[in-house]
Amino acid sequence: MLKPAVFLDRDGTINLDPGYLGDPEKVEIYPLVKEGIRKLKCSFGFTIVVVSNQSGIARGLITEEQVIAVNKRINDLLGEEAKIDAFYYCSHHPEFSSPEECLCRKPSPEMILKAASELKLDLKKSYIIGDKAIDVESGFNAGIKTVLLTNTISRAEREEMENNNLIPTFVADNFEEASNFIITDYQGEII
Ligand SMILES: [Mg+2]
Q: 71 alpha carbon to ligand 1 midpoint, in Å?
């Protein structure tokens, strides 16, 4: 049976985003994230999957090993009950990589679709939480519901989203609001 999932952007959503984060010691998790993920997992058993653009690898600013070390540190900080089940990342960037390599880069839905196929996820019952327009757009492209966090997004980017008719299913001021929305919405869907 296919499982429901919550896809999460990483930088700016789970952890503070200092830009090209390569040092596991610098990982800082946003408040309420750990508890929010725990609730998502224990309420309806959502599979939690990170989908993250890490173009710092293509740019030569960080290594793949550093991205993996940061991911591991995130899971250490989240603990067993709020553990991320899988991390997907796109290491490419159009200026440094071929168009084929960049196919995974958000707003493409490719990482979501790949995870859905590999982990047997039900996209009809899945959501994405992110802090940027590309996160919402990748959710649109994958046909899942979208939650925009207001952690980092600028007023200009919000306006641009509206002008492009890129309207998230829900806008949340913090991770608790985001996870509560998903739990309530999912409850409505399954009744
Ligand atoms: Mg982000």
A: 14
For 71, the token pair is: 């991911």
CB 9 within 8 A of CB 52: yes
Distance 119 CA to ligand 1 centre (A): 23
Q: What is the pLDDT of residue 98?
A: 83
Q: Cα–Cα distance between 175 and 156 in angstroms, integer?
A: 22
- Tell me the per-residue pLDDT of 166-184, one tens digit each, with 9 for 90 and over: 999 999 999 999 999 999 9
Q: What residue ranges define each of the domains in the chain, with the CATH number in brackets?
A: 5-190 (3.40.50.1000)
What are 61's two structure tokens? 């600013």
| Residue ranges in the chain modelled with pLDDT below 70 | 191
**Ligand 1 centre and the CA of 163: distance in Å?**
21
151: CA distance to ligand 1 center in Å? 9
The DSSP-derived string for 155-187 is HHHHHHHHHTT---SEEESSHHHHHHHHHHHHH
- Residues 19-45 have pLDDT tens digits of 999 999 999 999 999 999 999 999 999
For 52, the 3-state DSSP assignment is: strand
Catalytic residue numbers, as ranges: 9, 11
